[in-house]
Amino acid sequence: MKRLIILVFICMTSLSGIHAQGLPFIRNISSKEYHAHNQNFDIITGEDGTIFVANFEGLLYYDNADWRVIHTPNVTRITSVFRDSKNVVWAGGYNFIGYVTIGNRGELKLYSLRASRFHGEVQWIWERDGQISFLTSESKIFHVNGEEIVFDPKGKVPTSGFATISTVSHINQIQQMDEGLQAIATNGEGIIITDQSGKPLYNINEGNGLCSNNVTHITYNRMGQLWGATDNGVFVISLPSIYSRFTLTEGLRSEVTSLEKLGNDIYAGTLSGLYRRSGTSFVSVSAINHTCWQIVKDGQGQSLLVATMDGVYRIFSNGSVRQLTTSTTLSLMVDGNNFYSGEMDGLYYNTPDGQHKKLNNTEKVITILKDRSGCIWLKTIYGKVLKRNRNGMFVPFTSSKDAQEVATLIYDKGNVKPILASATKPFPYPMYNYTDKNNTFWLTNNKGKELYAIKNGVRDEQLSLILKPFRNYATRAILLDNKHLWIGGEKGIGIVDFNKKPIQLKEKPKVVIRSIYLRSDSLLWGGYGKQPEVLPKLASNERELSFNFSLNFTYVVEKPLFRYRINGAKWSPWDEETSAMLYNQPYGKNTFEVQGQDSWGRISEITKITFIYEYPLYLRWYSIVCYIILLVLIIYIVFQYRLRQLEKDKIRLEHIVKDRTAEVVRLEKMATVGKLTQGLIDRILNPLNYINNFAKLSQGLVKDITANIEDEKENMNPDNYEDTMDVLNMLDGNLQKVSEHGANTTRTLKAMEEMLKDRSGGMTEMDLTQLMKQAHEMLLTYYEKEIADCHIDIQFDLPEKPLTILGNPEQLSKTVMSLLANAVYAIVKKDDRGTTSPMSLALALKTEGKMAHLTIRDTGTGISENIINKIFDPFFTTKTTAEASGVGLYLSKEIAQNHGGDITVHSVKGEYTEFTITLPTL
Q1: DSSP assignment of 460-515
Q2: Over the chain, what is the mean pLDDT?
Q3: How far apart are CA 450 and CA 471, in angstroms?
Q4: 383: buried, middle or exposed (CB in 10 Å: 19+, 13-18, 0-12)?
Q5: Which contacts of 299-306 are long-range, i.e. CB under 8 A and separated by 24 or more positions?
Q6: Does pTM surpass 0.85?
Q7: Which residues pair with 145 in a beta bridge?
Q8: Which end of the chain is more exposed for a tag (fewer CB within 10 A), N or C?
Q9: For every residue of 32-97, which 3-state class applies, written as one string?
Q10: Whose CA is closest to 488, among 470, 510, 465, 514?
Q11: Are 125 and 59 in contact (CB under 8 A)?
Q12: What pLDDT is recorded for position 18?
């Protein structure tokens, strides 16, 4: 049997009211956190503070940074752990017995002894006279003799240390702790804490935060921490400790706003009502279930006044309650048998006979103080401070800096001192402050956290140090009772016992690198044994390291902080994270440094380790020499190449200059020819106009002469008449030819004149869509007859929104109308040939990217392949000389190109012709 029968008489109701503090701080570790089974059988503490747990999946251990599992060879459960006098950790399980060793890389391993000599489950391991023995589930005892396991048929188990109370409830273990405390691990009742005499102090179970009532084993690490293994995870309790607490599990239901003591009772005002301490829990005062803002003692200290949302209540020493007022009250100040009350609409003065006199209209007063001179000071919820003057009037407190600045009030030896929000002396502005009977100031920062003490005008470092674990508590209320500081806030109530010092302060914090991994899976250093100064060299492609670190023991009340840096660079911010990932650090030697800060703000010494990345092949010295040689060679080749290029460029530039000069000469000649041509056109057009005009006049004269001869026909010789008429007809025909050729020559000269015009100006922002709408209207107007006769289907596909371009509206309109006219001409020609196919003319305007595409398609005669490449040449036309001059398409292409675009054509003879104009948009 593993347990001895022990008699324990504990009346659970007697646990309440015995201990002055609340319950200790507890941290539960679930199976999700330690990544193993929730069933645990045993637990011990290693020499260095490592926690070893016998778990259903194997040997579980915690190095204060991470939880890890060591599996047995057959992946069986571990049921018992033990640390011998040489600090060797032994582990036993199903058909397994072995001990923990340290590998070459500082990792923990489980060394297995030959277990063929026994079968069953190891239930207990112990040491006697330097020899390790263990008990199996078959009730057999074995001894470890070197590598051998020897069965001892006469072996006996130790007769102390474990107990069982009955078949209903039993004791699993009794653990001695510092300061004379004892912890009793039970099945069904959790942990029972007793003093030296065995008197129970309190019971820690599922009801007040423990992960399970079935505690299999516990272990104490001599640093104020009690660890336990249960059937539902692992826990650690801060014991013995000067810190304790009351939270939701101890009866408090919301944020604590005020604290006060009456007799032996502690009262806590919360946002959900008033509570009274009863042993290790708080019970609700049923008569007061509204928000309590402040609790004060009356003038004789025989009762309490409570300011609530429902008015002011009086609590008597016997626990009875009487309501004094019904208006929402935020603050109170006792004045003899009377009291002041700060209410929503002002300040009131109250007397025992029920008088309720309004003194001031200041709304929402949350602090009322009276100095030794009798002057009343007020502070509102908005931070406004008022003071009563000699005339009894309340006037705003003004400073030399800013009359409207937020301030708070400090009570100091009978004096009231306003502290501005911008103040730095004598101390920074506190969100909350409390002055005890010894005139010690308990102050927070401007966010209500980081509580510290000021004594005799100087920061009390010892008291402030002890308060450090509560630095993240938002403080709303404080009560000092027999060197026990009660701190109320959003997390309930925390209690600090100043009669003792924390056990943990006996040892300086030390930061330890617990593990180093390459790419999060390859272990470089396991954290045990002597840490190397330098890690083995790492390949150049292995620049992804993860570091895990922790302090030398676990903290329960407040987590420690860490910071790290690389190669002496700037420290990272303080953080609770116990790991750091390093990516792509420089090649060569690197140094990782880490520093820790414990719950009391004490900073550890720096722990460092060096790691070296090998330089890649392309960065090694011989590669660099090759690079230098190659660079010199490249520079030489480039220099030579550049010389040749400069020589070629020189020759090319000379040719360019020569060609440009010739081009300039040619252009000048062309310009001269153009000017001469322009002059010749003017010189030719004038006489040509005369020729055309006189030819028309002569034709008229011929008609007159012909008419006269017709009149004189009877008087003329027939032969003369015939000859004369032949001459006149011949003359009329000649004049007709002169007129036609003169008109053709004039048209050609006009076309030449048009070609010589400058079309580069007149650009403006215009709407291309609107221009196409105008072209549509002109097409329907000018070619109404042709459209009707040939049954032409006109289709214009235009965008709904404006399409803005930079262009010349007049030139673009001429270009589009010229193309539309050509399309109508081609359709009419095809219709004249008697075709029965439908006739259509379509114009579409679309955008692609920053270009506008204008497409004009007709189903006319089409263009032959042998001439399609010539249609944009000047004076080329398939029409007769009398119908066209042949410069329309040439000018259209020039206009499109002047706009930064172009014009293209696709055609199939006899089927269709499609012109596309591309123009840049804005």
Answers
A1: -HHHHHHHGGGTT--EEEEEEETTEEEEEETTEEEEEETTS--GGGGS---EEEEE
A2: 88
A3: 4
A4: middle
A5: 299/334, 299/335, 299/336, 299/337, 303/262, 304/260, 304/262, 304/267, 305/332, 305/334, 305/339, 306/267, 306/269, 306/274
A6: no
A7: 148
A8: C
A9: HHHCCCCCEEEEEECCCCCEEEEECCEEEEECCCCEEEECCCCCCCEEEEEECCCCCEEEEEECEE
A10: 470
A11: no
A12: 40
**Please, are residues 232 and 463 in contact by the beta-carbon 8 Å criterion?**
no
Both tokens of 637, joined, read: 């080749």
- Residue 725 φ then ψ, to 5°: -65, -35
Q: Which of 601, 610, 594 lies closest to 65, judged by CA?
A: 594
Closest CA to 825 of 841, 809, 838: 841
Average pLDDT on 798-815 reads 90
Torsion sign (Cα): 654, 659, 661, 664: negative
Residue 873 is encoded by which pair of tokens? 């040449």
> Residue 369 contacts by C-beta under 8 Å, 6 or more apart in sequence?
333, 376, 377, 409, 411, 416
Q: How far apart are CA 309 and CA 453, in angstroms?
A: 31
Rounded distance between C-alpha atoms, residue 766 and residue 424, angstroms = 68
User: Which tokens is 124 given?
Assistant: 């207990």
Return all residues near 450 (Cβ < 8 A) that are at least 6 apart.
Answer: 444, 471
Query: Which residues are registered as beta bridge partners of 99?
Result: 90, 111
The SS3 call for residue 204 is: strand
Partnered with residue 804 across adjacent β-strands are 767
DSSP codes joined into one string, 595-621? EEE-TT-PBPPPEEEEEEEPPPGGGSH
DSSP 8-state class, residue 180: G
The DSSP H or E segment spanning 173 is strand 170-176
What kind and span of H or E run contains 711?
A: helix 621-711
Distance CA 362, CA 318 (A): 36
What gap in Å lies between CA 476 and CA 252, rounded to an integer? 15
Polymer length in residues for the chain: 922
**Among 532, 494, 497, 498, which Cα is nearest to 513's?**
532
Q: Phi, psi at residue 44, to the nearest 5°? A: -145, 165
**C-alpha 121 chain-centroid distance:** 52
Q: Which letter does DSSP use for residue 383 in this model? A: S
pLDDT digits (tens, 9 = 90+) for 153-196: 888 887 654 433 333 357 889 999 999 999 999 999 999 999 88
Is it the case that residue 448 has pLDDT exceeding 50?
yes
Q: In what order do the strands lie in the sheet with 522-525?
A: 522-525, 511-518, 544-551, 579-583
**Residue 753 burial by Cβ neighbours in a 10 Å radius (0-12, 13-18, 19+):** middle
Within 13 A of 631's CA, how many CA atoms are on the CB side?
6
To which H or E segment does residue 665 belong?
helix 621-711
